[in-house]
Amino acid sequence: MAAYTHFFFVFLLTNFLPTTFAFSPTNHIPPPYNCHDHEKSALLQFKDSFIIDSSASADDPAAYPKSEGWKLDGSDCCSWDGIECDDITGHVISLDLSGSCLSGSIDSSSSLFQLLHLRSLNLAFNDFSHSSIPFVLGHLLPNLAHLNLSYSGFSGPIPSSISNLSKLSSLDLSSNLGLELKTNPDFKTLQVLHLDHVDMSSIVPNDILANSSSLVSLSLVGCDLQGVFPARIFQLPKLEVLLLDNNYNLTGYFFFIMDGSSDQTHSFISSQLTFKR
Ligand SMILES: *[C@@H]1O[C@H](CO)[C@@H](O)[C@H](O)[C@H]1NC(C)=O
Ligand SMILES: *[C@@H]1O[C@H](CO)[C@@H](O)[C@H](O)[C@H]1NC(C)=O
Ligand SMILES: *[C@@H]1O[C@H](CO)[C@@H](O)[C@H](O)[C@H]1NC(C)=O
Ligand SMILES: *[C@@H]1O[C@H](CO)[C@@H](O)[C@H](O)[C@H]1NC(C)=O
């Protein structure tokens, strides 16, 4: 009986759903709000602060200059490539210019920091020319939940202000040559933390991620971690993926419990850890 019901449901969906969509009025009515003028001009200023250079995104085979179609005309910036706005307020909430051939730098006066409602920022696979991640980022974009600056040529210390992003749930700063983590940030809300190839040699591993009980995925490949990796990280309740490869001076051990009663997948991979059962 249950199987029959399921089959019938699938039949209904596959036969009638496309028709329903084709005539749905919601496909044709624009969102209730257009983008705000000050956010539109902030986006255009941001675009103009870079030059487009395909070699800036050489590591990304899918790269193309997303901001090239952004124009100061009557267009709604919410419909521009890489932009997402809130349905209700019309504020820009997501900026994804990953792999957009951007070459240049971002400083604290960048018009990026006028997009106060941003929840998601992805500038991965561009070339910010060894500039630092601006300190103001942690203070001026308080709604950020997703920050991705991987493969983007940032250098220097990761600003401590990043701990002030109290809604941050994923942070990817991987593969920026010369980026350093000098002090342990306090990440209470993070679920995903990827810092591959960030220089963490001055961090005392025992103190790291003391308050990060939400972590699901932690990747610290090639971070030059030194010393003993704390066993408590392995006991974080939600951790599913931990990558610690290529930390040649890192040691540690953990207990790997497989009792069949847990439905979590744990995959711990490291070249230098001692595994104990
Ligand atoms: C940033 O966080 C620090 C340490 O938690 C705190 O002292 C400071 O007041 C915060 N700054 C802002 C602007 O939220
Ligand atoms: C960061 O962005 C890149 C490019 O879009 C993507 O490949 C990567 O998976 C993202 N990282 C996270 C943690 O989502
Ligand atoms: C963890 O949280 C406690 C209490 O909020 C705080 O005292 C401590 O400094 C935090 N640890 C780290 C490493 O941030
Ligand atoms: C490992 O530690 C030793 C001794 O402190 C140091 O000389 C060496 O450079 C370190 N190696 C790496 C890859 O960090």
From TrEMBL:
Residue ranges occupied by any Leucine-rich repeat-containing N-terminal plant-type domain in the UniProt entry: 36-86
GO cellular component terms attached to this protein's record: membrane
TM segment ranges: none
SUPFAM superfamilies reported in the protein's UniProt record: L domain-like
A Pfam family reported for this protein in Swiss-Prot or TrEMBL: LRRNT_2
Signal peptide positions (record): 1-22
Bilayer disposition of the protein: Single-pass type I membrane protein
InterPro entries membership: Leu-rich_rpt, LRR_dom_sf, LRR_N_plant-typ, RLP23-like
Entry annotated with the keyword DNA repair: no
Keywords annotated in UniProt: Glycoprotein, Leucine-rich repeat, Membrane, Receptor, Repeat, Signal, Transmembrane, Transmembrane helix
Compartments reported by the entry: Membrane
Official protein name in the record: Leucine-rich repeat-containing N-terminal plant-type domain-containing protein
Native source species: Turnera subulata
Upper lineage: Eukaryota, Viridiplantae, Streptophyta, Embryophyta, Tracheophyta
